[in-house]
Structure formats: C-alpha cells, structure tokens
Amino acid sequence: MTERLTFIGNFAENNGSIQLKEISLTDEGVYSCIFTLFSAGSYETMISLTVLVCPEVKMSEVTPLVGESEEVMATCTAAGARPPANISWHLGSFSDSMKTMTNSTAHLNGTYTNTSHLIGVPSRHANQQQVQCVVNHVTRNQILNYTINVHCAQGDRLILLSQSPDLNGLYICKASNQYGEASGSIYVFMTSETPKIAVICLVLLSLVIVIGLLCWIKSKKYPG
To answer: What is the pLDDT of residue 195?
Structure first.
C-alpha cells in the first residue's frame, strides 16, 4: 500500500493528512494515526475508511405478448453497488395497474446487485407508454426512461377475431433475416360494420410490403 500513499499535510500547521490513490474495496477498514509530541508523549486516533461503489445501471428490453395474465413488462438493474442501491419506478397512469418485484444479490467482494421487475398485464393500451426507473445511491441518482413494447403475436399472420372499434390503432409488422430487417405499418379503423375479411386483407398486405423490402435489401447487398 505504501506506493499508493502520498503525504499531503503540513507539519507547520499540525496537519498530517495523507492521500490514498487507486483505492479498492480491500482498503476499507479502520486506520490508526499516531503522532508524538516532544515531552508530551505519543497520541493515537482511529479513522474509519468507507469505500463506496457507484452502481452500473441499465434497462433490459422486454417484449411480452398481449394477453390477460401478468407478465414482466420491464427490468431495471443496478449492479455492483456498495452499499446497495434503491430502485423505484415512476409509472404515471399505470400506478394502480402495475406492481414491482425487486431482488437483491450480495457478491463476495461486498457489492450488491439489485434487479427490479415491472409487472403488469400486457395490453394494447400499455404499448408505447413511457415509464421511468429511478435509482438512488449515495454516489449519485439516475433516472432511466423506458418505452413499453407489447407484441400482438408472433408469426407471419395476425388475425383480428372481433370487429370491435377497441382494436383500432397502428399495427407494425417487423421481419428480419440474415440480410437485414424491415418493417411495415398499417392503421386499422373499424366500425361495427367493418367486414372481417377486409381487416385480414389489410394485415396480409402489410406483410407483403415487408417481404418486398427484405428482398430489396438483399438485392442491394448482393447484386446479381
């Protein structure tokens, strides 16, 4: 440790301060300061050193399928903190319809990782809504914005089984392969008289557009 210690005090001012560089968790502990005065003897005082570690904060993307049962909607992690960080959420209009579940893991080196899951029922109304993960720590506070992404279905076909105006809205189809990815969108507007076959045709048309875009991307990357 001696190579990392630097005296920064001033004996004339009775200041015996030292500086410890490149500090690590193993440096935490109680240190003794001993000084001797002529004819008065030696004096000793104890100094506690506490090492703080700022957490690494991130949001993990979650894409639940629309349904009626509760699913994880978003995940926020504060990793490697000392002491452990506190995670909370700003949910806006979803405060009453979503809940959180937080897990804490203690590591052998004395740091902690906290993971908080936002849990709710994935619905069309929750799609593209904004929430915030708030991480509080003695070193700094952070706020991460997150947009909830709810997928309607997986596969190459989306069939709307009812003709309710509640299904009105923007639908986005995404397709990808080894050559790239593309997306197409269509806005569906239905009244009670809208024929079901018309809705299916619109969705299939959107899929055809996406496939066409992928073929175009492939032809550009691999001409001939």
So the answer is: 55
Helix (H, G, I), strand (E, B) or coil at 70: coil
Whether the full predicted model's pTM is greater than 0.70, yes or no, is no
- Which tens digit of pLDDT belongs to each residue from 176-223? 777 777 777 777 777 765 455 565 666 666 666 767 666 666 666 666
pLDDT at position 154 is 66
Which CATH topology does 56-148 take?
Answer: Immunoglobulin-like (2.60.40)
Spatial distance between the Cα atoms of 133 and 137, rounded to a whole number of angstroms: 13
CB-based burial label for 136 (10 Å; 0-12, 13-18, 19+): middle
Query: What gap in Å lies between CA 20 and CA 70, rounded to an integer?
Result: 51
Short-list 32, 126, 137, 111, CA closest to 74: 126
Q: How many residues does the chain have?
A: 224
DSSP letter string, 99-165? EEEEEEEE-TTS-EEEEEEEEE---TTTTT-EEEEEEE-SS-EEEEEEE---BS-SSS--------G
Domain edges within the chain:
5-49, 56-148
Residue 152 CA to residue 92 CA, distance in Å, equals: 23
pLDDT cut 90: percent of the chain above it: 34
φ/ψ of 223, rounded to 5, equals -65, 145
Q: Which residues of the chain have pLDDT under 50?
A: 194
User: Which amino acid would we find at residue 38?
Assistant: F
| Rounded CA separation 34/146 (Å) | 53
